[in-house]
Amino acid sequence: MPPELVVKTLKEENIHLCGLSALMTTTVVSMEETIKAIRKAGLDVKVWAGGAVMNEEYAEMIGADAYCKDALASVNYAAEFFGTK
């Protein structure tokens, strides 16, 4: 999905938590571009990154607010974020 569309959707739907996942190393560049676009737009959005090719250090390097190693970790992060855990 193009970064511009992600930013547009986050704005229009008033979304405050965005998860990005990469299964191939070639998609990590898009994740970084998307995070940069979100930050440039000045949105109040926390971004977590995960997926088979990600690790905590790389998630931090591309500007993500958090790293989620798998689907369960992302659910737990969302639960903490929304105060339901």
Summarize the structure in words:
This protein has 85 residues and is an alpha/beta fold. It contains 4 helices and 3 strands, in the order αβαβαβα. Strand 1, helix 2 (28-40) and strand 2 (46-50) form a beta-alpha-beta unit. It is globular. The termini are far apart. The model has no long low-confidence stretch (mean pLDDT 94).
Sketch the major β-sheet.
3 strands, parallel
The level of helicity is 40-55%
Poorly predicted tracts of residues = none
Radius of gyration, in angstroms, nearest whole number: 12 Å
Total DSSP E strands:
3
Structural class by sheet pairing and helices: alpha/beta
Q: Which properties best describe this structure?
A:
single chain; 85 residues; alpha/beta; 3-stranded parallel β-sheet; globular
Provide the fold topology.
Blueprint lengths: L2 H10 L4 E5 L6 H13 L5 E5 L5 H6 L4 E3 L2 H11 L4
Parallel strand pairs: 1-2, 2-3
Give a nutshell description of this structure.
With 85 residues, the protein is of the alpha/beta class. The protein has four helices and three strands; from the N terminus they run αβαβαβα. The chain has helices at 3-12, 28-40, 56-61, 71-81; strands at 17-21, 46-50, 66-68.
